[in-house]
Amino acid sequence: MTPRARLFVNAVRRTWAPALMACAGAAVLLGGCVSARQMFSDATVDPTSPVAGEVARLSKTGDDWPSFHEIPETPKDLRPRRLYGQAARDVAQASAEIERQTAPSAWTLQGTDTFAAGARSAAGSEPAPSDAGGTEAFAEDLRKRATPPPPPRN
Question: How would DSSP label each residue in 87-151?
Fold first, then answer.
Protein backbone atom coordinates (compact mmCIF):
# COMPACT_ATOMS: atom_id res chain seq x y z
CA MET A 1 0.00 0.00 0.00
CA THR A 2 1.36 3.42 -0.90
CA PRO A 3 0.36 6.25 1.48
CA ARG A 4 -0.72 9.58 0.11
CA ALA A 5 2.03 12.26 0.13
CA ARG A 6 -0.18 14.84 1.85
CA LEU A 7 -0.08 12.72 5.02
CA PHE A 8 3.64 13.32 5.28
CA VAL A 9 3.93 17.05 4.80
CA ASN A 10 7.20 17.37 6.73
CA ALA A 11 8.83 14.61 4.71
CA VAL A 12 9.50 16.97 1.78
CA ARG A 13 12.92 18.55 2.03
CA ARG A 14 13.00 22.28 1.63
CA THR A 15 16.61 22.83 0.56
CA TRP A 16 15.82 26.25 -0.89
CA ALA A 17 14.70 27.75 2.43
CA PRO A 18 18.18 28.32 3.98
CA ALA A 19 19.47 29.83 0.74
CA LEU A 20 16.46 32.12 0.54
CA MET A 21 16.97 33.23 4.14
CA ALA A 22 20.66 33.92 3.49
CA CYS A 23 19.85 36.00 0.41
CA ALA A 24 17.19 37.95 2.26
CA GLY A 25 19.59 38.63 5.13
CA ALA A 26 22.31 39.80 2.76
CA ALA A 27 19.85 42.10 1.00
CA VAL A 28 18.77 43.64 4.29
CA LEU A 29 22.36 44.19 5.40
CA LEU A 30 23.42 45.70 2.10
CA GLY A 31 20.34 47.86 2.03
CA GLY A 32 21.26 49.19 5.46
CA CYS A 33 24.76 50.03 4.27
CA VAL A 34 23.47 51.87 1.22
CA SER A 35 20.95 53.87 3.22
CA ALA A 36 23.55 54.69 5.88
CA ARG A 37 25.94 55.94 3.22
CA GLN A 38 23.26 58.13 1.72
CA MET A 39 22.29 59.35 5.17
CA PHE A 40 25.82 60.42 6.10
CA SER A 41 26.93 61.72 2.71
CA ASP A 42 25.69 65.24 3.39
CA ALA A 43 26.46 65.26 7.12
CA THR A 44 28.44 68.23 8.40
CA VAL A 45 30.80 68.46 11.35
CA ASP A 46 30.44 71.17 13.94
CA PRO A 47 33.47 73.47 13.40
CA THR A 48 33.74 74.08 17.16
CA SER A 49 34.12 70.36 17.81
CA PRO A 50 37.56 69.31 19.10
CA VAL A 51 37.74 66.61 16.43
CA ALA A 52 36.60 68.74 13.49
CA GLY A 53 40.11 69.06 12.03
CA GLU A 54 40.75 65.33 12.29
CA VAL A 55 37.38 64.50 10.68
CA ALA A 56 38.08 66.87 7.81
CA ARG A 57 41.53 65.38 7.27
CA LEU A 58 40.26 61.79 7.30
CA SER A 59 37.15 62.36 5.19
CA LYS A 60 38.69 64.17 2.24
CA THR A 61 37.64 62.69 -1.08
CA GLY A 62 39.79 61.85 -4.04
CA ASP A 63 42.01 59.38 -2.20
CA ASP A 64 43.77 56.82 -4.33
CA TRP A 65 42.17 53.42 -3.82
CA PRO A 66 44.03 50.25 -4.81
CA SER A 67 42.88 48.37 -7.87
CA PHE A 68 43.19 44.75 -8.94
CA HIS A 69 46.04 45.43 -11.33
CA GLU A 70 48.15 46.62 -8.37
CA ILE A 71 48.14 43.17 -6.76
CA PRO A 72 51.75 41.98 -6.79
CA GLU A 73 52.85 38.97 -8.78
CA THR A 74 53.34 35.65 -7.02
CA PRO A 75 56.91 35.41 -5.67
CA LYS A 76 59.14 33.09 -7.68
CA ASP A 77 61.28 31.94 -4.73
CA LEU A 78 58.48 29.96 -3.03
CA ARG A 79 58.53 26.19 -2.93
CA PRO A 80 55.90 24.39 -5.00
CA ARG A 81 52.58 23.65 -3.31
CA ARG A 82 53.10 19.89 -3.30
CA LEU A 83 56.22 20.34 -1.15
CA TYR A 84 54.11 21.93 1.59
CA GLY A 85 52.13 18.69 1.76
CA GLN A 86 55.35 16.67 1.87
CA ALA A 87 56.62 18.81 4.76
CA ALA A 88 53.32 18.25 6.60
CA ARG A 89 53.66 14.47 6.06
CA ASP A 90 57.25 14.60 7.38
CA VAL A 91 56.06 16.37 10.54
CA ALA A 92 53.28 13.81 11.01
CA GLN A 93 55.75 10.95 10.56
CA ALA A 94 58.16 12.49 13.07
CA SER A 95 55.30 12.91 15.53
CA ALA A 96 54.27 9.28 15.11
CA GLU A 97 57.88 8.16 15.61
CA ILE A 98 58.21 10.18 18.84
CA GLU A 99 54.93 8.77 20.12
CA ARG A 100 56.10 5.24 19.28
CA GLN A 101 59.42 5.74 21.06
CA THR A 102 57.83 7.25 24.16
CA ALA A 103 54.91 4.83 24.47
CA PRO A 104 54.46 3.26 27.93
CA SER A 105 55.44 -0.17 26.59
CA ALA A 106 58.79 1.20 25.35
CA TRP A 107 60.08 1.99 28.84
CA THR A 108 61.68 -0.53 31.19
CA LEU A 109 63.31 0.09 34.54
CA GLN A 110 66.54 -1.82 34.98
CA GLY A 111 69.32 -1.36 37.50
CA THR A 112 67.19 0.62 39.96
CA ASP A 113 68.90 -0.93 42.99
CA THR A 114 72.30 0.20 41.73
CA PHE A 115 70.95 3.70 41.10
CA ALA A 116 69.36 3.89 44.58
CA ALA A 117 72.56 2.69 46.27
CA GLY A 118 74.59 5.31 44.41
CA ALA A 119 72.12 8.04 45.41
CA ARG A 120 72.25 6.98 49.07
CA SER A 121 76.04 6.99 49.11
CA ALA A 122 76.10 10.43 47.44
CA ALA A 123 73.66 11.82 50.02
CA GLY A 124 75.82 10.70 52.93
CA SER A 125 74.87 9.01 56.16
CA GLU A 126 71.34 9.38 57.48
CA PRO A 127 71.21 11.41 60.72
CA ALA A 128 69.62 9.71 63.71
CA PRO A 129 66.48 11.29 65.18
CA SER A 130 67.36 13.59 68.05
CA ASP A 131 64.38 12.89 70.32
CA ALA A 132 62.03 10.03 69.49
CA GLY A 133 59.75 10.90 72.44
CA GLY A 134 59.22 14.47 71.25
CA THR A 135 57.16 13.38 68.27
CA GLU A 136 54.92 11.22 70.39
CA ALA A 137 54.46 14.03 72.95
CA PHE A 138 53.52 16.45 70.16
CA ALA A 139 50.98 13.99 68.74
CA GLU A 140 49.46 13.42 72.20
CA ASP A 141 49.14 17.18 72.73
CA LEU A 142 47.31 17.51 69.43
CA ARG A 143 44.95 14.67 70.38
CA LYS A 144 44.08 16.42 73.65
CA ARG A 145 43.36 19.75 71.92
CA ALA A 146 41.32 18.22 69.11
CA THR A 147 37.61 18.92 69.33
CA PRO A 148 35.24 16.40 67.77
CA PRO A 149 32.56 17.77 65.46
CA PRO A 150 29.11 18.33 66.95
CA PRO A 151 26.58 15.51 66.61
CA PRO A 152 24.18 15.79 63.68
CA ARG A 153 20.85 17.47 64.32
CA ASN A 154 17.82 15.30 63.91
Answer: HHHHHHHHHHHHHHHTSGGG-----HHHHHHHHHHHH-PPPPPS-HHHHHHHHHHHHHH--PPPP
Query: What predicted TM-score, i.e. pTM, was given to this entire model?
Result: 0.30
Are 79 and 73 a contacting pair, CB within 8 Å?
Answer: no
List, for residues 61-87, the tens digit of each pLDDT value: 666 777 888 888 888 898 988 999 999
Q: Is 115 exposed, middle or buried (0-12, 13-18, 19+ CB in 10 A)?
A: exposed
Say which residues have a Cβ less than 8 Å from residue 140's Cβ, sequence separation at least 6.
Answer: none
Instruction: Give the CA radius of gyration of the chain.
Output: 40
Q: Rounded distance, CA 24 to CA 92, Å?
A: 44
Between CA 56 and CA 95 the distance in angstroms is 57
